[in-house]
Design goal:
The protein is an all-alpha fold and 137 residues long. The protein has seven helices and no strands. It folds into two domains: 1-50; 64-137. The protein has helices spanning 5-12, 15-34, 38-48, 56-61, 65-78, 81-88, 96-126. It starts with a helix and ends in an 11-residue tail after the last helix.
C-alpha cells in the first residue's frame, strides 16, 4: 500500500502524521494478530476507538497505586530528562560539580535501564509468560 500512490502521499505529509499512521497500523495489526477470531478483533478495535463513556470516574475506578506510579513515571520520563541533564552538565563544562552531575545522570540511566529489564523479567515470569509466541497456531 505504501509503495503506491499512498506512499507518495505519506511522503508529503508532516512527520507527526506519518508517525501517527505508523503507530495506528502497528496497534491495529497487533490486535488482529492476537485476537482469537476476526470478529473479536473487530470488536476490540471498535472498543479502542469508542470514546462515548470516557470520564474521570472510569479512569479512577481502574486506578491503583501501581498504575498511578507507572503513569507518573511515564509522564516524567517521556520527556528527555536525562539528555537535558547531560546537555546542561555535559563533559564540556568547567566546574567539578557539573562533571559529578553528568556522571550521576549517566549512572542513573544505566542502572534505571537494567532495573527495568529485571523488573520486566520478574513480571513476565510471575504472570505466566509463555515464551512460545506461535504456540497457539
Amino acid at each position: 500500500m505504501e509503495r503506491g500512490a499512498f506512499g507518495k502521499l505519506l511522503g508529503k505529509l508532516p512527520k507527526a502524521i506519518t508517525w501517527f499512521y505508523g503507530m495506528l497500523a502497528v496497534i491495529i495489526g497487533r490486535v488482529i494478530f492476537r485476537a482469537d477470531a476476526l470478529s473479536a478483533a473487530a470488536q476490540y478495535v471498535q472498543s479502542m476507538f469508542d470514546f462515548s463513556n470516557i470520564g474521570l470516574t472510569t479512569a479512577l475506578a481502574n486506578m491503583n497505586i501501581f498504575t498511578l506510579g507507572a503513569l507518573i513515571l511515564g509522564v516524567i520520563f517521556s520527556a528527555p530528562v536525562l539528555p537535558f541533564i547531560k546537555g546542561k552538565y555535559g563533559k564540556n563544562t568547567e566546574s567539578e560539580k557539573a562533571g559529578f552531575i553528568y556522571q550521576v545522570a549517566s549512572w542513573v540511566s544505566i542502572i534505571g535501564c537494567l532495573g527495568l529489564l529485571v523488573l520486566s523479567i520478574i513480571f513476565m515470569t510471575g504472570l505466566g509468560f509463555n515464551p512460545f509466541l506461535y504456540f497457539r497456531f
